[in-house]
């Protein structure tokens, strides 16, 4: 029973309720972020908090949702929610949504609310997934939005496509879904970016149909620092099936190896050597350790 931040106030978790006529609940216009806090030698640190909060504000800007708080206020509130809940490690969820003052498609007149919650959250796809890798299914749902790709926005409170894709994959016994773009090229997971290794080179889909992931950016930097060539370009389904290694990245999923796609074994069917190297570089980085 912890503490939550709502519109500038710290309130008990169980009193953070919302009215059934909340605009965002009906029409799906909301934006959120996912941030992780890690235990480091200097105490708990929120990994790339500024970038996540900037993306939250950018997402709101794209969707024309006015946010009545500054970047600094929102960053400080996220740190405070972690501290007040005595979390050494955990997940932080800031949410910007429209209130119940107004019904109808136009959100004008509905008040913007900002909530920040935090809770302990271990490996998103399980500890074993981080070690052994997961089994993924290419989805029958595509990653697209008819008018706006929303690749710069952590795409609103509307994750319908991702949920449908994930439901379809998990109901078929897979661990996660992989969405293609409207042209049939690889886009991303239901909540993760994707990387592929081929002959020592790291490839990731460009940002025409995948979220501009902050973990993706960290992995590109960590790889380049280690002298690994990184190419951002379109990736076909066949290329993935014949890749040496494939992995997902995301704040929740961290760096999760993929050992099988659509019943095709990837590489040796285990976490590949470059994946392992970048995974440990990532954990060293988020935990503030010198690279091992
Ligand atoms: N793609 C989607 C659709 C997401 O929801 C997320 C969110 O975590 C990501 C990719 C990964 O982004 P990040 O690394 O910034 O968490």
UniProtKB/TrEMBL annotation:
Signal sequence span is: none
- Any matching Pfam family: Aminotran_4
Report whether Nuclease shows up as a keyword of the record. no
Q: Keywords for this entry? A: Amino-acid biosynthesis, Aminotransferase, Branched-chain amino acid biosynthesis, Pyridoxal phosphate, Transferase
Query: Which cofactor(s) does the record list?
Result: pyridoxal 5'-phosphate
- Per its UniProt record, what PROSITE patterns does this chain match? AA_TRANSFER_CLASS_4 (PS00770)
TM stretches of this protein: none
What is this protein's function? Acts on leucine, isoleucine and valine.
Q: What protein name does the entry list?
A: Branched-chain-amino-acid aminotransferase
């Amino acid at each position: 029973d912890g503490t939550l931040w709502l519109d500038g106030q710290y309130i008990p978790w169980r009193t953070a309720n919302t009215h059934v006529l909340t605009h965002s609940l009906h029409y799906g216009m909301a934006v959120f972020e996912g941030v992780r806090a890690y235990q480091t030698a200097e105490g708990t640190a929120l990994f790339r908090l500024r970038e996540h909060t900037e993306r939250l504000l950018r997402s709101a800007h794209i969707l024309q949702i006015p946010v009545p708080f500054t970047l600094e206020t929102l960053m400080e509130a996220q740190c405070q929610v972690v501290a007040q809940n005595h979390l050494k490690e955990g997940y932080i969820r800031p949410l910007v949504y429209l209130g119940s003052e107004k019904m109808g498609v136009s959100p004008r007149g509905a008040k913007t609310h900002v909530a920040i919650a935090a809770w302990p959250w271990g490996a998103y796809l399980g500890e074993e997934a981080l070690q052994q890798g997961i089994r993924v299914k290419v989805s029958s749902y595509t990653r697209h939005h008819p008018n706006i790709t929303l690749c710069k926005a952590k795409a609103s409170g509307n994750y319908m496509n991702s949920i449908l894709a994930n439901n379809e994959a998990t109901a078929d016994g897979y661990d996660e879904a992989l969405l293609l773009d409207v042209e049939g090229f690889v886009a991303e997971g239901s909540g993760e970016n994707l990387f592929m290794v081929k002959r020592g080179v790291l490839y990731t889909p460009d940002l025409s149909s995948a979220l501009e992931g902050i973990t993706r950016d960290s992995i590109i930097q960590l790889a380049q620092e280690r002298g690994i060539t990184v190419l951002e370009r379109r990736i076909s389904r066949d290329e993935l099936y014949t890749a040496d290694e494939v992995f997902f990245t995301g704040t929740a999923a961290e760096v999760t190896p993929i050992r099988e796609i659509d019943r095709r074994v990837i590489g040796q069917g285990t976490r590949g050597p470059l994946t392992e190297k970048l995974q440990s570089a990532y954990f060293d980085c988020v935990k503030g350790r010198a690279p091992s």
